[in-house]
């Protein structure tokens, strides 16, 4: 069975299969073992303790380190952030429209910034040192990553960080005054695995950048509409099962390294077909 010939028919079946599920629900709780794949473990001493997090991974406590400055006049409407790794930019969106763009520093190849769809779950003030004057933590499940200031302004516009997104202190201070806990943050670029990352079987409960690769491929095929958040939950497993059915494979909702490569190949072929027909 050729995937491209059945895709249009498959979508209607998928809609019936997933009816009743909320694809815009908050991401699942972060898994334990935060430092398995990367991030900044030295940040932990500054963060809201785990007891202040709700089961959905949303911060419920107040930001540490004193009172915030009054909010600067900023974007109106629903605010979200778009970080483009290749362009080294962070754009504030208001109701989906660009409001302001800042230059940023992103992760170097050995410690890449995590591509995916996240939310701000921590806000803290005045850490100083390499974290600058503000911290906006993200709910990445395999490490501690965030948006913060820096004492190395010469790194802005480059790929030099340990995976976090660095900003000029004046810029992150302005951004901090505009965003609230729960603000969506989308990081775009090619989802890359850290060096020496070992291929593995993915199944319900897996977390990591390889899960983002799977979710991104499923989205490209029109089979997955939830967050690309690195958490292999029921919705991801269900989309994988449907892809397996279309491929004539055992629909167990799990992916071996070989099946992951096949899934990404299907997604690349679908993307190439879309470009050629445009």
Can you offer a commentary on this structure?
The radius of gyration is 19 Å and the shape is elongated. The protein has an eight-stranded mixed sheet with strand order 3-2-1-10-5-6-7-9, covered by helices on one side. α1 (3-18) packs antiparallel against α4 and α3 runs parallel beside α5. The protein has helices spanning 3-18, 169-178, 209-220, 234-246, 257-277, and strands at 79-84, 89-94, 97-103, 106-107, 116-125, 134-138, 146-148, 159-161, 165-166, 184-188. It is of the alpha/beta class. Mean pLDDT is 81; it is low at 1-36 and 48-70. β2 (89-94) and β3 (97-103) form a beta hairpin. It is built from five helices and ten strands.
Percentage of residues in helical conformation: 25-40%
Strand content: 15-25%
Adjacency order of strands in the biggest sheet:
3-2-1-10-5-6-7-9
Order of SSEs: HEEEEEEEEEHEHHH
Query: Would you tell me the overall average pLDDT?
Result: 81
| Amino- and carboxy-terminal Cα gap | 25 Å
Look at the helices and sheets and give the structural class: alpha/beta
How large, in whole angstroms, is the Cα Rg?
19 Å
